[in-house]
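Posting this for the archive.
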Amino acid sequence: MEWSFQSAEELTTALRAGEVTSTELTDEAIARIERDDEAINAICVPDFDRARAAARDADRARARGEDRPLLGIPVTVKESYDMAGLPTTWGMPQHRDFLPAEDAVQVSRLKSAGAVVLGKTNVPLGLQDVQSFNEVYGTTNNPWDQGRTPGGSSGGSAAALAAGFGALSIGSDIGGSLRTPAHFCGVYAHKPTLELVAPRGSVPPTVPAWPAALDLAVVGPMARTARDLTLLLDVMAGPDPLTLGVAYELRLPPARHERLGDFRVLVLDEHPFIPTGTAVRAGVQRVADALADGGARVERHSPLLPSLSESAMVYTQLLFAGVGARFPAETYEQLRGLAAGLSADDRSLDTARLRGLVSSHRDWVEANNRRELHRQGWRQFFAEFDAVVCPITPTPAFPHDHAPDSLTRRLDIDGVEYPYLDQLVWAGLATMPGLPATAVPTGLSPEGLPVGVQLIGPMFEDRTPLRLAELLERELGGFQAPKREGGS
């Protein structure tokens, strides 16, 4: 039997029943990587010797009667997480030889849960792209169409899952970096509520791995099934033991509902800043139809929904404020001069990006106050609704575009070109207020490319969108393995 596309839950059942060993699962995963990854380039830092040793340890532990959540399950880890003995570069050539001294907290939690780490997955330079390519490790290709991107910045993790390289992976998200690769590769991902999952050790190689969190950024799980997302989130979630973990323990509330017919859902497929392509709009409609057929209350409009335009502007300013804070002083001053010439009436996203790059602390506090108004609006919204269904990006996976300046790139939406970075507005809808969002595959486009949507839920009620994802998986069919040349 071939195990590579089985879920972690199914593999655990087989391991418990003695139908397979972790050593066998790991050897099969490594053989598949060695056979197929030359064309995909998802696993940028293999760790096969330690993986085989960990698998043998898992088999011995199970023989002793141990049974941990991920005992013996092969997984991968995004390159941006520190793993002792392996390089952490974030795709930056000057750091190709940097070796962290200890594991990131999430890598430690994976190992404590018994997972077998096969290696690290590829990322874009500095994690700052909707694609995954860099000078250190090269370009990761989409398993569905190698001429297209798997997304970014967790593109290597999504491609690995779609190709059968391990049952689970962990990634990170600030601009859709979990959700977009899941959407492009036809897998599942969950952006947790802000600060629900400790990020320590997921830092650039020049930054100390201290227990500090970036604004907007989260780390989270990726999988081929919705139930596996929940399994992995339960391993990852919880405060950092060096900070809030000193005083607090995690207790996530249960999902609001167990039956599809009990959910109250707002469905969106239009954004004021960018159109939604035909293929993605069809995917949203498939979800809306499945919800309605299951008896859920489905609405297309609500006066309670916070402004999408305002949300995009605040998100853009906060996102680029974080980027600009790391610029050299000379560059920062040049940008300040450009921003000073902007019209006060200019409300374009390009202007929001430039103003964000040169934000003062006063500017940031003002934007943060606007964010708090949105959070209050979302609290009121979620008193009447349980989830929002909407796009992750306007299109399925697009062809590789390695133009060095992302501001000059264009995104083709049904034959019309739009600014490349404008596609981030859908991801920002959940990111800006810190809401949880689950990426769910809905099927294939007419061109045979995966299409996904995101399910946005109430803050710290992560089990609600995850449960809805599980119910929709039953209705929509869930993950499909891409065909490869010469067979399945």
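Residues 361-381 form the longest helix (21 residues). The radius of gyration is 21 Å.
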